[in-house]
Amino acid sequence: MQNQDGVQVDGEVESATSVPTPEFDEWANFGDQDIMQQHSAIRAEEAEKIPFLGDKEPLSSLAAEYQSGSAILLEKIKVLGEQYAAIRRTRGDGNCFFRSFMFSYLEHILESQDQSEVDRIKANVEQCRKTLQSLGYADFTFEDFFALFLEQLDSVLQGNEASISHDELILRSRDQSVSDYVVMFFRFVTSGEIRKRAEFFEPFILGLTNATVEQFCKSSVEPMGEESDHVHITALSDALGVPIRVVYLDRSSCDTGGVSVNHHDFVPAGSDLPNASGCSEKVSPFITLLYRPGHYDILYPK
Amino acid sequence: MQASRARLFKEYKEVQREKVADPDIQLVCDDSNIFKWTALIKGPSETPFEGGVFQLAFAVPEQYPLQPPQVRFLTKIFHPNVHFKTGEICLDILKNAWSPAWTLQSVCRAIIALMAHPEPDSPLNCDSGNLLRSGDLRGYYSMARMYTKLAAMPKKG
């Protein structure tokens, strides 16, 4: 009896849910998977245009972009030119902050061969691992990303079998299987730091979105391609203990007359305390990023 | 490819360990292909899906875990966020909110949560979504219940 009823209703539902008009058939078959495939095809096409990491370019190439544009920007680029020599662009795929940070940091280690800095950051990385564990992340979800970053760190130090050249570092930074994994490592570290110090970050997050700290991490930190904000930068800088300078290039003009370019130094919490590496005096960031609304590139000081 | 395989192998071991802890989820890997999985999940209690067992099919891409697995219902289900014909699931973590912090096991948990908390404002099954949006809880419940009985429960006798 019940079964009979069911079948009858079933028939009705079938005709109601299926779209009868034939021209919609294609749309019915056009599922999310197709949309995602299309997205990745578009991304691949864009990738042809700008690699994850560009070549070092003189600052004049930045000015060239705005030749027929805003006079304020051109003025500011001129001011930038007094302090900075070159720019290295990154792809604008939402991961640009992390990719810029990755290359800048590894390049710094490669050039400075600062063993004590490597030891220091490794200790921080271990701390980050513990943070994630204590937050309930299963090891296997993040350990591959940690391992890949530590591998890069070892390979930029010279004098061992795995050592790599500057050219090789560039190649790796352009290789998706390395670059994306390191970006994801930073995303885990950033998320862990934010959640560990949730009460500190909460007001900033509320200022950005209407989400809880956990929602924010799940939706705006951990997924690839989610853009970084000052919250992400603060958290990453704190977690790894690496100061970051961000130079802002936008159309805002200051009070009267002279154009100046603002920058902000993200200095890790507690870094004014003397530490083992001995660089306790004054923290001056060795990573400088250029921020234009929505995008980060790497800047090279003179 | 190698990375995804290694990760899936770790998940496989984890699944064996968690079997007891999560009796509502039975996740099995294809004998010959670690990129193909199926899951049997129990319909959550106090929902029209209670008592039903639903089969999910997982297709894992080579870029996993940077890219999400593709998951769909093989068992017919009447739910606003599941395509009635294809079984496709509308769930943010399977699309743009995916991150490697998720696992096949936790995806199953998220799908069970979605069964209990439908999002009628982003429907893949408009009939189901409309019932909820118009406040016809009884209509939604009875339709969903009927399909659970028809498709997700073992036939008696």
TrEMBL record, chain A:
A GO cellular-component term linked to this record: nucleus
Region (Disordered): 1-24
Catalyzed reactions: Thiol-dependent hydrolysis of ester, thioester, amide, peptide and isopeptide bonds formed by the C-terminal Gly of ubiquitin (a 76-residue protein attached to proteins as an intracellular targeting signal)
Active-site feature positions: 93, 96 (nucleophile), 295
EC number: 3.4.19.12
One Pfam family named in its UniProt record: Peptidase_C65
Record-annotated site: Interacts with free ubiquitin: 248, 250, 291, 296
UniProt enzyme class: hydrolase
Alphabetical keyword list: Hydrolase, Protease, Thiol protease, Ubl conjugation pathway
GO biological process: protein K48-linked deubiquitination; proteolysis
OTU domain location: 85-302
GO MF term set: cysteine-type deubiquitinase activity; ubiquitin binding
PANTHER family given in the database record: UBIQUITIN THIOESTERASE OTUBAIN-LIKE, UBIQUITIN THIOLESTERASE PROTEIN OTUB
Homology family: Belongs to the peptidase C65 family.
The protein's name: Ubiquitin thioesterase
Organism: Prunus dulcis (Almond)
UniProtKB/TrEMBL annotation, chain B:
Entry annotated with the keyword Membrane: no
BP terms from Gene Ontology: peroxisome organization; protein polyubiquitination
Domain UBC core: 3-153
Protein keywords: ATP-binding, Nucleotide-binding, Peroxisome biogenesis, Transferase, Ubl conjugation pathway
InterPro entries: Ub_conjugating_enzyme (IPR050113), UBC (IPR000608), UBQ-conjugating_AS (IPR023313), UBQ-conjugating_enzyme/RWD (IPR016135)
ATP-binding is among the record's keywords: yes
One GO location term (cellular component): nucleus
EC number: 2.3.2.23
SMART domains named among the record's database cross-references: UBCc
Molecular function per GO: ATP binding; ubiquitin conjugating enzyme activity
CDD domains per record: UBCc_ScPEX4-like
Pfam families: UQ_con
Residues at the active site: 90 (glycyl thioester intermediate)
Similarity annotation: Belongs to the ubiquitin-conjugating enzyme family.
Protein name in UniProt: E2 ubiquitin-conjugating enzyme
